């Protein structure tokens, strides 16, 4: 059941682990056995997904549990449009699993490599002022708990735990399945175009309110942003997808191949970055198409990077972006990666970055071969001044003391953790830092 541990790295190559043992349960009973064996050995347990978190949330110094074999559709409630998925189901698998039932997830982020359990447990979200993050789409979940029991949480079973379990950081147990509230399948009309940065910032709240899904990217050292506006359409609306050749040029050649080259060039010749960014802002975007929702929401990302993202009250986004622009100018930095700005509706999950407030998200990135620390620390200082909450799966430098005042449900979550895992079977150094021992 337990194999010899082997070195693990996350996708961003910023975190690694050398677990004592690894396990890959193929059933719930095997997951229960793993927890029992861990208690016998006195080792902590940490479930991992696809390794797309940039923080150390998935670092497993004891027993690393790979849940990828716990995947696929387990149950469908056609009347309520609810689908139960194995926790190890990757988001890129979900469209094909839901299509036979005429269903889709309400909203998605732009990367689909994560597992459904990993994405919801870390607070992954998409964009759209009326749409909540992925964890808020869950209406139920099943956990293997620290005592080797099974805990089912839903609207009718242990409902008081839903605000904690839907976004649980992996701190409450091993998720083995989740139940998603789906919606009828739909299409999206996508309009992507470059626009003047200051105009978009001035109109940011109106743009979010008037569109189903709105976001923009800003390449530092330019005065232009790439806006993306998606409008929801019925599933039977006429589709006008990008042709294979255009998609290859845009997404493979430009967004990944050429971008990798420019990042490498910028690393060795930083003075070239402003010119490269101006060229990139002219060559990317400026397209219009209609396709099934998942083909519009998600993109392929092969250029490796590191990321920090903060959630702030939505109306403060323009001021925060301008403050970051001023910071970059004042420090004389050369930043090759764009800054991404999105929005989401408020929710009631205790550790959600959107808890209790309509939220704007600002994400900064660095090429993985560049040192990100000075840039990220300085941007974090700015965003903390705007009441920022860090994305749990992306790099940040806060701890339990500073985080406790940001979340109305922080103490409630820690109380549930103490109840479900008093001996810290599912602890690791990251959770000790952000939640306390």
Short summary:
The protein is α+β, with helices and mostly antiparallel strands and 437 residues long. The protein has 2 domains: 112 residues, Uridine Diphospho-n-acetylenolpyruvylglucosamine Reductase, domain 3; 205 residues, 3-Layer(aba) Sandwich (Vanillyl-alcohol Oxidase, Chain A, domain 3). The chain is built from 14 helices and 21 strands.
Number of domains: 2
Described by strand count, sense and barrel closure, the largest sheet is:
8 strands, antiparallel
Q: What quaternary form is this?
A: single chain
Strand order of the largest sheet: 17-14-16-15-19-20-18-21
Output the CATH topology of the largest domain. Answer: Vanillyl-alcohol Oxidase, Chain A, domain 3
Contiguous uncertain segments of 5+ residues: none
Write the CATH homologous superfamily of the largest domain: FAD-linked oxidases, C-terminal domain
**Number of strand elements:** 21
User: What is the first-to-last residue Cα distance?
Assistant: 29 Å
Report the sheet-strand fraction: 25-35%
Rg (CA only): 21 Å
- The chain-level structural class is alpha+beta
Instruction: Please give the CATH architecture of the largest domain.
Output: 3-Layer(aba) Sandwich
Mean of residue pLDDT values: 94
Shape, please? globular
Helix segment tally: 14
**Percent of residues in helices:** 25-40%
Q: Name the CATH class of the largest domain.
A: Alpha Beta
How would you describe this structure to a colleague?
The chain is α+β, with helices and mostly antiparallel strands and 437 residues long. It has two domains: 73-184, Uridine Diphospho-n-acetylenolpyruvylglucosamine Reductase, domain 3; 186-390, FAD-linked oxidases, C-terminal domain (Vanillyl-alcohol Oxidase, Chain A, domain 3, 3-Layer(aba) Sandwich). 30% of the residues lie in helices and 25% in strands. The chain has helices at residues 28-41, 94-98, 116-121, 162-165, 197-202, 204-210, 244-268, 273-283, 293-297, 317-331, 373-384, 400-403, 410-420, 429-435, and strands at 3-4, 8-9, 16-17, 21-23, 45-48, 63-66, 73-77, 82-86, 103-104, 138-144, 150-154, 174-181, 183-184, 186-196, 213-218, 224-234, 287-292, 305-313, 339-344, 359-367, 389-390. The strands form five sheets. The protein has an eight-stranded antiparallel sheet with strand order 17-14-16-15-19-20-18-21, with helices on both faces. Strand 15 (213-218) and strand 16 (224-234) form a beta hairpin. The chain is globular and about 60 Å long. It starts with a strand and ends with a helix. The relative contact order is 0.14. The mean pLDDT is 94.
């Amino acid at each position: 059941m337990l194999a010899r541990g082997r070195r693990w790295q996350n996708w961003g190559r910023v975190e690694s682990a050398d677990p004592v043992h690894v396990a890959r349960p193929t059933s719930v009973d095997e997951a229960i056995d793993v927890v029992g064996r861990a208690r016998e050995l006195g080792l902590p347990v940490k479930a991992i997904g696809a390794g797309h978190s940039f923080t150390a949330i998935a670092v497993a110094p004891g027993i690393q549990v790979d849940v990828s074999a716990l995947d696929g559709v387990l149950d469908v409630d056609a009347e309520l449009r609810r689908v139960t998925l194995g926790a190890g189901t990757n988001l890129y698998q979900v469209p094909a699993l839901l299509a036979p039932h005429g269903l889709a997830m309400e909203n998605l982020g732009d990367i689909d490599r994560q597992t459904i359990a990993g994405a919801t447990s870390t607070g992954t979200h998409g964009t759209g002022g009326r749409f909540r993050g992925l964890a808020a789409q869950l209406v139920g979940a099943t956990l293997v708990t620290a005592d080797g029991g099974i805990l089912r949480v839903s609207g009718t079973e242990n409902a008081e735990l839903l605000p904690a379990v839907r976004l649980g950081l992996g701190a409450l147990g091993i998720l083995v399945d989740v139940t998603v509230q789906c919606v009828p399948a739909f299409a999206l009309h996508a309009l992507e175009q470059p626009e003047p940065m200051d105009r978009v910032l001035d109109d940011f709240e109106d743009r979010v309110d008037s569109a189903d899904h709105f976001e923009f990217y800003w390449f530092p050292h330019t005065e232009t942003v790439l806006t993306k506006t998606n409008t929801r359409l019925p599933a039977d609306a006429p589709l006008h997808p990008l042709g294979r050749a255009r998609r290859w040029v845009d997404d493979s050649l430009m967004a990944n191949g050429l971008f990798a080259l420019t990042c490498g060039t910028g690393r060795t010749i930083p003075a070239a970055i402003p010119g490269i960014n101006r060229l990139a802002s002219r060559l990317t975007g400026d397209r219009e198409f209609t396709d099934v929702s998942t083909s519009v929401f998600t993109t392929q990302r092969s250029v490796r990077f590191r990321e920090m993202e903060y959630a702030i009250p939505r109306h403060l986004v323009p001021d925060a972006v301008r403050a970051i622009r001023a910071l970059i100018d004042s420090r004389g930095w050369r930043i090759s990666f764009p800054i991404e700005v999105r929005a989401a509706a408020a929710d009631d999950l205790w550790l959600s970055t959107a808890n209790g407030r309509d939220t704007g998200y600002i994400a900064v990135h660095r090429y993985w071969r560049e040192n990100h620390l000075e840039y990220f620390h300085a941007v974090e200082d700015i965003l903390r001044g705007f009441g920022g909450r860090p994305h749990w799966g992306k790099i940040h430098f806060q701890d339990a003391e500073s985080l406790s005042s940001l979340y109305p449900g922080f103490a409630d979550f820690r109380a549930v953790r103490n109840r479900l895992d008093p001996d810290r079977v599912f602890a690791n150094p990251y959770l000790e830092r952000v939640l306390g021992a």
